[in-house]
Design a protein that fits this description.
Strand content: 5-15%
Largest sheet: 4 strands, mixed
Structural class: alpha/beta
Shape: globular
Number of strands: 7
Oligomer: single chain
Distance between the termini: 31 Å
Length: 412
Amino acid sequence: MVWIHGGAYVIGYSGQKIYDGRVLSETGNIVVVTLNYRLGALGFLDLSSFSTVGDTYESNLGLRDQIAALEWVRDCIADFGGDPDNVTLFGESSGGGSVTTLMTVPRARGCSIGRSRSRHRRRRYTVVNARRWLLSDSSISSTCRLLGWGLRDMPYEQLVAAAETVVGEIPTKIPGTLAMTPVVDRDLVPKYPVAAFQKGLSHRVPLIIGSNKDEPSIFRFMKSPLMPVDDSAVRAMLEALAKDRPDLEPERLAEIAAAYPDLPKPSGAMALSRDAGFRMPVLWVAEAHAEHSPTWVYRFDHATPMLKAARIGAGHATELPYVFGNFGTLGRDPSFWLGGRKGAIEVSGRVQRRWLAFVKHGVPAALDASKHWPQYEPGERMTLLIDARDTVVSDPDGSMREVWGNQVMGFS
């Protein structure tokens, strides 16, 4: 099992305690690999449009690092007791987005899910970065020329500091947008990943994909701008979408907003943000991939009494200790201050058994045959809800899925 960590493509590293693979490895008698890759400006700032015949800037350096790591696993993992013919890639947040993207990258075929931004928007961010570096403030063209001339000699500390500023500014000015992500460069990443899935271009491999019931809650709790969690930010996100999609009728966006009766309350804003950023892309990918490959969809609903009391619930990344079996890695972890540890350990055991069965046999089976998790197929859309008890429900988010359709976000 090869793990790609999350962190909005700008933070994180494989050595974080939460990603310690010891429990997972010992439980499943498998080899767990966690990898690092370049982040932020060093990994996801696209400067390829400034390349010249004698001076090339490659795009998607972070993704290229991930592919290099997968090639190392393919070539070397047998020396560590692993099977190079049975490799499962998994990740969360931007790590999950990386998995989805890699499933559409031709170069990653045979080595092994999210949204990439278009090149025209990436160049706009590059210009913002250039102005932060004070290489030029007179015109875009001179900025680009000077950027190409001066970047090679720039101290990396200056590059990182400038990128940190932009990473904080972009989601505030354009809610729902990350400053650093993989880009559709028509080279390594030939198409938007969701569009590639919908065109049947994803790699023919079994897939488990899902999201958490309360994804945006942790962003609201931490006052992070990475996700829009109030009415004004959500509406700004929809307005930005309308500008990017002139073919998208205002009535269509109004229809989506009207489907969330709790707006303008925070609960309504977070529900819309959750569906736009997580739940709907999961379903779009699953619908398409299921046309040709075994696909299973889950929704992680479990939360400890403390997380429920704090109104975090099954927030973003709260499933990680259940997957790795690593509880208590965050110092004075308040998750169990009101109890719930025994139940959480039981849920973790079920999650791990399903994930490990998927790794070994290609099917996320349970010990109890009555807990069968059927494949996701258009029509029934059977989905596993992971909570104190596992339940399988047909199309649990069907009403919202119908409202959003499958082309609203403009992937092409």
